[in-house]
Amino acid sequence: MSTIWLQIGQCGNQVGQEWWKLVTNEKAPNSTLDRYPFRAPDGKLSALCVDSEPKVVRSLLREVKSGSFRDSNISLGLRGRGNNWALGYHGLKREDDNSLLHRTLDSFRKEVERRDAYSGVVLLHSLTGGTGSGLGAHLCESIREEFPVGYILSVTVAPHQVGESPLQHYNSLLCLSWLQRYADGVLLFHNDDVLRRMQVLCGKKIDHAPALQPPISLSDMNTHIASCLAGLMYPVSNLRTQRGTASWDSMLSSIVRTLPRHSPTGDVYQSTAVLAVARGNRAETFNCSLQPIMMKMKQGYGCVSWNSHPLDSWTDPCNIVDLMSSSHSLTICANHSSVSDYIQRVLEKAQTMYDAHAYLHWYWKHGCEEEDFMQAFEILDSVVKEYIAAGDH
């Protein structure tokens, strides 16, 4: 595979480490070096890790010693970015051409040059941390300018609605606007949704003893996100969002039941496109019952009428998450208009803070300008309007 994986900041590197645990399982299909889809021709992982602090990435040193990870692909700073998009984007004032941004781009160019063809990059990062949001946005912009033909897919994690950082709405606003301008696609995971999903899964496992239900850890949430990515993005010969021995219809019903149907204002949510990935030793039965499953998906996800082919499906006989079991998994990726509610909430929170001039001095101090905010408000407002218009065609 000619794709490079770029892990940025604490969140990006933690999710990335869980991702590599899954896909580098030596029992996984296509795991031999000449066919392995996530390695460079010399057998090293096609990954770069960048963080402004060394604490999270230290665990990767074991992978460096084992020979699977390239030491030159780890770029670290000595000072965090203070949960500030502006500091992450513009960097420290005393930095020169040896800055974290320049070192990362230099490693990226060398990784591109190691392969016969370059198709694109997957960015793993968060919307709220200074490094993930600010440096992530700058890297996305720089990679687009230097490698305009390659695709850029952002896998980004939105913060909890309440309580992560007083700057999270500004950071999310600015980062999302940069992704809208420079990325080809965004897979958005929301911490609140991931936590609810994990609580449902854990509740099912030990519903006979709710008092003993273990707390959901950050590591659990990162593993869940990584397994969702594996279900969607691992090659098919063709996540663990749903697993077990249930029928495909039952699994789909369980997923559809969790979908929000209406916005707070009563508008019906719709999807412009939906992809289902079925994995496991029963994958062939998915194709046998494809028509009723697709009809249920079309109705459950509210596919827009103007798209004549809104649904697609992939299958693979191997369940990458549970290689030793007979379980099967169903992963669904949808461009669902409920995301506009999150964007609208970011807009409203950020606008309220901006009008009150709250915390703005921290952004002016590190190089941000009023035009950056005005452009971000305009871009995200247009995204919300486009989602609304998509259902009116």
Structural account:
The protein has 393 residues and is of the alpha/beta class. It has 3 domains: 1-235, 3-Layer(aba) Sandwich (Rossmann fold); 236-337, 60s Ribosomal Protein L30, Chain: A (2-Layer Sandwich), CATH 3.30.1330; 341-390, Helix Hairpins. It contains 14 helices and 10 strands. It has helices spanning 9-23, 61-66, 85-90, 100-113, 130-146, 168-182, 191-205, 218-233, 248-257, 283-288, 290-300, 339-355, 360-365, 370-390; strands spanning 3-8, 47-51, 74-76, 120-126, 151-158, 185-190, 243-244, 271-279, 311-316, 328-336. The strands form 2 sheets. A 6-stranded parallel beta sheet has the order 3-2-1-4-5-6. Helix 2 links the parallel strand 2 (47-51) and strand 3. The two termini are 38 Å apart.
* Name of the CATH first level of the largest domain: Alpha Beta
- What is the CATH homology-level superfamily of the largest domain? Tubulin/FtsZ, GTPase domain
CATH topology of the largest domain: Rossmann fold
Q: Could you give the order of the helices and strands?
A: EHEHEHHEHEHEHHEHEHHEEHHH
- Give the terminus-to-terminus CA distance: 38 Å
Compute the number of helices.
Answer: 14
**Roughly how much helix do the residues carry, as a percent range?**
40-55%
